[in-house]
Amino acid sequence: MPQPTSSQALAPDPAGTDLAAPTPGFPASKTAERAAAWIEATKPGITRLVTVTAGVGFVMAWLAPPDRMTCLRATLVGGACLAGTALSAAGANAINQWMERDRDARMKRTAGRPIPTGRATPTQVIGLGLVLAAAGVALLAVVNGVVPALVSLACVLSYVLLYTPMKPRTPLSTYAGTIPGALPPMIGWAAASGSGWDEQWASLGLWGGWALVALMVVWQLPHFFAIGWMYRDDYAAGGYRTLPVVDPSGRRTARAVLLWSIVLVPVSLTPAWAMPGVVGAPYAVLAGVAGLGFLWLCVGLARERTRDAARRVFFASIAYLPLVMLAMVAEAVLRTLAS
Questions:
Q1: Distance, CA of 120 to CA of 1 (rounded, Å)
Q2: pLDDT at 29
Q3: Does residue 4 carry a pLDDT above 70?
Q4: Does residue 10 carry a pLDDT above 80?
Q5: How high is the mean pLDDT of the chain?
Q6: Mean per-residue pLDDT for 162-173?
Q7: How many CB atoms lie within 10 A of CB 210?
Q8: Contact indicator for 258, 218 with CB cutoff of 8 Å
Q9: Pick from 155, 190, 154, 225: which is nearest to 60 by CA?
């Protein structure tokens, strides 16, 4: 999900430390500190968001009639899907932190991350990232099928090989960053659509899954432009060419936020069209109202072009997505229980 960061090459730990448990003479508190640093390197907040959106994709595909797996099977398959998604996302985030370690050290908001502070070595973080990403994709392939695994792999690769290298080069990186941020619902969608290649591959052609992807793509843009505005000096210090960095007046950034917040309103309604019988008018009304409220704050940013206005848009975007997805899942569940 639109904003990711950091990575390196797998090599033996020069300190020769045991990565699993405390050794004689090595205090348990140090082991706990190291574990905490490794967890922090996986960007738990972003990992959680990616996992939740994959879960939403799984639930929406599972509740779509007519061939629905049993609750027990859905629980087991869905649990594996969430675990695999979380592992692969955590791995991509750790790789991103390794890749951006030097730039992180130059930015106030990221200077406290594990590698810049010395709480974790670059070798440890890249090793952790590669292991977690591989484990997540492998788990999805074994339990959920090849198609969900391939979608997860696409998320990892687009994050570390496309989005991350583009950030210091072009403002278009934000658009590239929507790819790994928007595809996770399709991991869950494919995983819930059957166990065979043919069923899962066919599920990628259904509008329901792509309606979720479209929602994630469009939501990320005003969200990340607002972050970029709030921390533009920091991003400039890190050498990133985000739109707010190359747009000192803020006019282009404000127009972009306004444009994509306008687009978000109709796009947020597409799940009701793409999944008839699963969601409908109740979801559409709530999504429409939430979208218009968010648009109003984006209009305020376009008028004021201040950090406070960008901050309001940022926090509103954080509230908007879970509200809309919760409404979607809640209506789908209630319709299923009533049928």
A1: 25
A2: 82
A3: no
A4: no
A5: 91
A6: 97
A7: 18
A8: no
A9: 190
Look up residue 88 and give its two tokens: 């692969």
Centre a 10 Å sphere on the Cβ of residue 151 and count the other Cβ atoms it contains: 27
Torsion of CA 205, 214, 231, 86, to 10 degrees: -40
- The sign of the dihedral angle between the CA atoms of 250, 251, 253, 254 is positive
Which helix (H) or strand (E) is 151 found in, with range?
helix 146-157
Which amino acid is residue 15, in one-letter code? A
Going from the N-terminus, what domains does the chain have, and what CATH number goes with each? 1-205 (1.10.357.140), 210-339 (1.20.120)
**What does the DSSP assignment read for 230-256?**
HTHHHHHHHT---HHHH-TT-HHHHHH
Mean pLDDT of 57-69: 86
86 to each of 18, 160, 246, how far by Cα in Å? 24, 16, 34
Q: Which amino acid is at 281?
A: A
Helices and strands counted in the chain (H then E): 17, 0
Query: Closest Cα to residue 185, out of 328, 311, 318, 32?
Result: 328
CA distance from start to end of the chain: 34
Which pairs with CB-CB distance under 8 Å and at least 24 residues apart come from 149-153?
A: 149/84, 151/183, 151/184, 151/186, 151/187, 151/190, 152/84, 152/85, 152/88, 152/184, 152/187, 153/88
